[in-house]
């Protein structure tokens, strides 16, 4: 991950969990979601102010639906915001996102614990 890009993101989006060394993550998928947002920002899909507003809206919706806002679900909101923005910007569609989410679920169900998950054509059926 580009340390400079991560520093710019943590400066622009004040809610990012961080310590003195930069952003912190509870699991590898959180770091991957963060890196996807950095890449999409670098490619001009959204600005950091636009991202921060969309993330704040997502968190507010989740809290209204009962999310206790303990910090443990922060990157779930981050991922939901990514999905919303890429669909809103025409990078992909909600249908394609759901298709891939279902395929990953199928692949994960058939993959033994600790093994890498590999998508196959059958996962999309």
Automatic annotation (TrEMBL):
<dbReference type="Pfam" id="PF21006">
    <property type="entry name" value="NHase_beta_N"/>
</dbReference>
<protein>
    <submittedName>
        <fullName>Nitrile hydratase accessory protein</fullName>
    </submittedName>
</protein>
<feature type="compositionally biased region" description="Low complexity">
    <location>
        <begin position="1"/>
        <end position="15"/>
    </location>
</feature>
<feature type="region of interest" description="Disordered">
    <location>
        <begin position="1"/>
        <end position="22"/>
    </location>
</feature>
<dbReference type="InterPro" id="IPR023808">
    <property type="entry name" value="Nitrile_Hydratase_acc_put"/>
</dbReference>
<feature type="domain" description="Nitrile hydratase beta subunit-like N-terminal">
    <location>
        <begin position="16"/>
        <end position="103"/>
    </location>
</feature>
<dbReference type="InterPro" id="IPR008990">
    <property type="entry name" value="Elect_transpt_acc-like_dom_sf"/>
</dbReference>
<dbReference type="InterPro" id="IPR042262">
    <property type="entry name" value="CN_hydtase_beta_C"/>
</dbReference>
<dbReference type="InterPro" id="IPR049054">
    <property type="entry name" value="CN_hydtase_beta-like_N"/>
</dbReference>
